[in-house]
Write a structure and sequence with these properties.
The protein has 611 residues and is of the alpha/beta class. The protein has a domain of 325 residues: ABC transporter transmembrane region fold (Up-down Bundle). Helix content is 62%, strand content 9%.
Length: 611
């Protein structure tokens, strides 16, 4: 359906009140139910993680024993041979256990991570299809897909960093602090705690400060991506107006803003990393100074010195990435929140609780006092009433902007009415399930958009699961089988993105074929033959007449010659029906319809396009 000034593309939805920002804990709370179904895997993974950390903490303890064993008295060669060999084997075993437990943890938990990401992504995908036409006419595809992509990646990052980095580090810090406090004087634990507190505080403060730069970076990235996608989707329009340089400049402006934001983000990251290294270096020097004093005074052995140094290295290696981990977790929470916010977007048009399926008993359609506006200040339909008797054809004609195509959108329940009712066999469309309603209606739109797949796939989309014979039968009825058969790949020919590899007439016939394959009791032809030449139009018009037999048909017409046999013709202007009747009656009245007929017959002025 072609967009006119009366369509929602030109009438943006009133801005909703900005939602209160969700806290990080609230975002985590929304994620937990998805993980709960894998709770036994989470528990087992945590067990393996604890085993890995106990093994890791055991390595410096064993290293101390190994170093101290090398200080045995000369003259005891048997002990010198046996004891270090056993310690070396134990050291290797602990290293192996650390890696083994880590790999088992990741293997066990991979299904939980992937399953959670899959569940959330699928739910968002289904919800996007449930959102109203208004949302999809206003959305920017590139930016939205970027948000979904980042949200899905955030699930992996959040689980990975929290379970594989934060929790293990906390466990290891607790074990090491306990050992240092019990085995040596309190200074070792005190220096470690002070360094950890200072390190974490500095990291959190600087990362929080950097978050605004990261958010700006993501927003600019989405804008640049959206502009690139929008330009490529409108490739032909760019070529028509020779605007490649203009589009490149537009895209480059976004890339330049993105570059500046990336440089700012990188400079603040360098500041964070330098500060972290200064704190780590200071703490290591203090610990080693204390340990060296202990060795000199005889209260500590060389093995103790090696053990303390090993503990510090093991602690600060994961802490060295704390800034990155904290930033990534914060960013993952932000990205996940965006996806959850999308998931919470109001559906606008929703089924009533327990809505029954539509019961077809002839498929008679009635519009009763229907009023509708995309914007409250600009009504489109005004107290409009008409009926399409079961098995009959009613045509709607009139100038652009009169609201003709809006009738089809309302019948499909893409929007809910402001006033009045639409009934099918006496059932209000708002009281039945949308799935059953749309199964009962088929449409051939004026502007056909196809999937970037094969011709066979696009025709079979009218009834997934249809056999090849049924697909070919629909193609023959739409007079496109011969064209398809003549192509090198036949029905496996790819149509290109949005069907751009096919001509307008070929796309139109594919759309007709898939609607014929659907075979619904109610048909809508919104300029169904507008892209066809006269010969093919006459042939397909005859097929449409045959298909429309015993079906309820709404025809939105541009060429009046295609609706002369309609049960009733409605002439619309400015959202109201100004004339109605049979073709001969309307001509006899000499009104607006008769004027349009004379203009088209004389070929002097092209009739207006449908609204």
């Amino acid at each position: 359906m072609r967009t006119s000034l009366s369509t929602p593309a030109a009438s943006p939805e009133p801005a909703a009140a900005p939602a209160m920002p969700r806290s990080d804990w609230a975002t985590i709370a929304k994620l937990l139910p998805y993980l709960w179904r894998y709770r036994w895997r989470v528990g087992l993974a945590l067990g393996f993680m604890l085993g890995a950390k106990l093994s890791n903490v055991g390595v410096p303890l064993l290293l101390k024993q190994l170093v101290d064993s090398l200080s045995l008295k000369p003259g005891d060669p048997q002990a010198l041979l046996v004891l270090p060999l056993g310690l070396l084997l134990a050291y290797g075993a602990l290293r192996l256990m650390t890696s083994l437990f880590t790999e088992l943890r990741e293997l066990i938990f991979a299904k939980a991570t992937e399953g959670t990401a899959r569940s959330i992504s699928l739910q968002v995908f289904r919800h996007l299809h449930d959102l109203s036409l208004r949302f999809h006419l206003e959305r920017q595809t590139g930016g939205m897909t970027r948000d979904i992509e980042r949200g899905t990646r955030a699930v992996h990052s959040l689980i990975s960093y929290s379970l594989y980095s934060i929790v293990p580090t906390l466990i290891e810090v607790t074990l090491v602090l306990g050992l240092l406090a019990v085995k040596y004087d309190i200074w070792f634990a005190g220096i470690t705690i002070a360094a950890l507190v200072l390190y974490v505080s500095f990291t959190v403060l600087v990362t929080e400060w950097r978050t605004k730069f990261r958010k700006q970076l993501n927003e600019l990235d989405s804008v640049a991506h959206s502009k690139a996608i929008d330009s490529l989707l409108n490739y032909e329009t760019v070529k028509y107006f020779n605007n490649e340089d203009f589009e490149s400049r537009r895209y480059d402006e976004s890339l330049e803003k993105l570059r500046r934001a990336q440089l700012k983000s990188q400079s603040t990251l360098s500041l964070l990393n330098t500060g972290q290294q200064l704190i780590i270096a200071t703490a290591l020097v203090a610990m080693l100074w204390r340990a060296t004093q202990g060795v000199v005074t005889g209260t500590m052995t060389l093995g103790d010195l090696v053990m303390v140094n090993a503990f510090m290295i093991q602690l600060y290696i994961p802490l060295n990435f704390l800034g990155v981990i904290y930033r990534e977790i914060k960013q993952s929470l932000t990205d996940l929140d965006k996806m959850f916010t999308l998931l919470e977007r109001d559906r606008e048009v929703a089924d009533a609780p327990g809505a029954p399926a539509l019961r077809i008993e002839g498929a008679g359609v009635r519009f009763e006092n229907v009023s509708f506006a995309y914007e409250a200040a600009r009504p489109i339909l005004k107290n409009l009433s008409f009926e399409i008797p079961a098995g009959k054809k009613v045509a709607v004609v009139g100038p652009s902007g009169s609201g003709k195509s809006t009738l089809a959108r309302l019948l499909y329940r893409f929007y809910d009415l402001d006033a009045g009712r639409i009934l099918i066999d006496g059932q209000d469309v708002r009281g039945v399930s949308q799935g059953s309603l749309r199964r009962a209606i088929g449409i051939v739109p004026q502007d056909t958009v196809l999937f970037n797949d094969t011709v066979a796939y696009n025709i079979a989309y009218g009834r997934p699961g249809a056999s090849r014979e049924e697909v070919e039968g629909a193609a023959r009825a739409a007079h496109i089988h011969d064209f398809i058969a003549a192509t090198p790949k036949g029905y496996e020919t790819m149509v290109g993105e949005r069907g751009l590899k096919l001509s307008g007439g070929e796309k139109q016939r594919v759309a007709i074929a898939r609607t014929l394959l659907k075979n619904p009791p109610i048909l809508i032809f919104d300029e169904a033959t507008s892209a066809l030449d006269s010969r093919n139009e006459r042939a397909i018009q005859a097929e449409l007449e045959a298909v429309g037999q015993n079906k309820t048909v709404l025809v939105i017409a541009h060429r009046l010659s295609t609706v002369v046999d309609a049960h009733e013709i409605l002439v619309m202007e400015q959202g109201a029906i100004i004339e109605r009747g049979h073709h001969e009656d309307l001509l006899a009245r000499g009104g607006r319809y008769a004027q349009m007929w004379r203009l088209q017959q004389s070929g002097g002025v092209a009739a207006e396009q449908p609204a």
